[in-house]
Amino acid sequence: MSLQSSPLRTVERLVQGTATSDGAGVRLTRVLTQNLQRRLDPFLMLDAFRNENPDDYIGGFPDHPHRGFETVSYMIAGRMRHHDSAGNAGLLGPGGVQWMTAGSGLIHSELPEQEEGLMEGFQLWLNLPARDKMIAPNYRDIPSESIPEFTTAEGVRVRVIAGESRGIAGAVQRPHTEPLYLDLHLPAGSHFVQAIPPGHNAFAYTYRGAVDIAGSEVVDRQMAILANDGGEAVHIAAAEASRVLLIAGRPLGEPIAQYGPFVMNTGEQIQQTLRDYQAGLFEAAVVQAR
Ligand code: MN
After folding, report:
1. Is the pTM of this model over 0.90?
2. Which of 87, 92, 97, 166 is the most buried (most CB within 10 A)?
3. For residue 148, is the peptide bond before it cis, meaning its omega torsion is within 30 degrees of 0?
4. What structural domains and CATH numbers belong to the chain?
5. 3 C-alpha to ligand 1 centroid (Å)
């Protein structure tokens, strides 16, 4: 069966996101908020930032801890410098991805490497299965030129950050949650069809232009939660030049206990995490790593 004749997913709901600030005063839009974690399992958060004014980003995200999940940062414009307590450092530039597995815990900072101009990008939080929450932290910088991509006959540029599209394997694969993370650049009048397993939770986020998904218009800075209605693919059409993130994954179906930057399965694990953090164990890991 061709993708074109597959049953297509409809849009269950459009989400506008919530304007907020995080870190040291970075203005951003929280697109995937805590109340959507169960619905969009295994994804815990999506933040979008697009700031022209340095006052809105210059403070960055100074030292802070994480435990129990993965952070995926994708930069569209600007540069961010990363340092963490496991001894990793890197510079995230336009089109690049930083895939960080917090696992058992680390402390890191994400600071702008620029004092003017546009700073634009996304941070996605991907949960880890219960059995992997305490694995050793890991970190990968994936520069733009190392992200697999292809262009369709209609001129749609497809950047495959994670998962697989049209037989092209993405830069990252994950066994339990099987995340799909595509950045689609659609010229005016083009369309794109992507297979998504019916049991996976999926959403699209428009960050330029406007697209049509099964009759629903998804405009700039809007997220469309795709219905789990048996559809085997999603059809995205762009009347004008548009850019869209398409994200999907296999739900874990496990309890989610979040306290700020820590995401575990139970309240007791959160209490233990706070004790470990207060005891300096997150920094101790640093000292050992050095
Ligand atoms: Mn962080």
Report:
1. yes
2. 97
3. no
4. 3-289 (2.60.120.10)
5. 37
